[in-house]
Amino acid sequence: MNNLLFLIPIALGLGALGLAAFLWAYRSGQFDDLDGDALRILTDEPPPQDKRPR
Fold first, then answer.
1. CA dihedral in degrees (23, 26, 30, 36; nearest 10)?
2. What is the pLDDT of residues 3-32, one digit of tens each?
3. Which Pfam family, an example, fits this chain (predicted)?
């Protein structure tokens, strides 16, 4: 019974941490363009070249 006094707050804390991580990813735009990355691999465009001088 005493184990539940530790495990329940830990479980609730981890759930809140997961929810906070999801909300941060959602607000930062991680889920805006789900089809773009999936279709980008099918194009034959070369990758962008690095424009920095060497």
1. 150
2. 999 999 999 999 999 999 999 999 998 888
3. FixS
Phi, psi of 21 (to 5 degrees): -65, -40
Give the chain's radius of gyration (CA, Å).
21
Task: Encode 1-54 in three state secondary structure.
Answer: CHHHHHHHHHHHHHHHHHHHHHHHHHHCCCCCCHHHHHHHCCCCCCCCCCCCCC
Query: pTM to 2 decimals?
Result: 0.60
